[in-house]
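Re-run with default settings, no changes from the original entry. Doing this only to confirm the output is reproducible before filing.
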Amino acid sequence: MSKTIRIGAIGAGGNARAHMRRMAAMKGVKLVAITDPSKDAIKLAQEQVEGAAKLPVFADHAKMLDEVAMDAVVISTPHTLHFDQIMDSLGAGLHVLCEKPMVCTTDDAAAVIDAWKASGLVMGVAYQRHTMGQFRYCRERIVSGEMGQVLFINSLQSQAWYQGQVLKGTWRSKMALSGGGQLNDSGSHLIDIVLWMSDLQPAEVFAYQDKMGSEVDILSAIDVTFDGGALCTFSIVGYQSWPGMFEETTIWLEKGQLAIRGDEVWEWTDTNQRTVVSGSALGRTWAPDENFIAAIRGKEEIQSSPEDALKVIQLSEAAWASAESGKPEAVVR
């Protein structure tokens, strides 16, 4: 691999352009090509990303992989396209950073993991909460065992997803491209971070969902039992009257309680006194892009792996199955 890490961008939408800008700003990293079937998205990338106007552009990712020398790709495209793009990139000998959800079925996730492990390449999934201080702090407190076993988790996410996606007819509202509604989109972050912080394995799911007349889930009420007996309830609300996002997670343990409120962690141990942990006390925060490049250079471990992403789609598939069947469904492993 050359000293400069050469990146190809698969996807040029708004999220992809943010990845490109972060990559382009890193020392020793060079964006070398962009692929997207949308000429409008390519044009915006050329306007918004420094140096992008001079790069070769492609409508098809396979053509880019075949014609441009590179070391890695960043994938930010409609969810159901991820599988082929990941497999083609790994097959071309490239490191991969993929947006969430990694893929949309457990079978595809297993195939990706097999290909990734066989390749010896670096692969990360852009669940950015893994590199944010408040979530890392809670994981460290839980896995240390100092607060005892997890008993119960309550996690809520609310945003105007219906208004922003369904009413505007975006690809996220189309099952063929999204693979699911808010649960598979921003809700995927919520599922992921609870599983990662708690280090628990989900066993069974009972879910209700409302599509509100659309192709995909908008409202999800999901109850989960974990191996060992811990319980969790996820509330994923894709309809609200104001823009923006509201999110909070509370974790009850044998010897205390942790609550994530914005950039702070509220902690209770053996007294009624609440401790507010914030700022540098939470530890380092950085971006998945930085972590990916550092991992390629052998300086860090990937913080959000394909195996983490597998657990997310396993739980999500069980939730969809339960909402369809009207009964609890086992999490297939």
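The radius of gyration is 20 Å. The chain has eleven helices and 15 strands.
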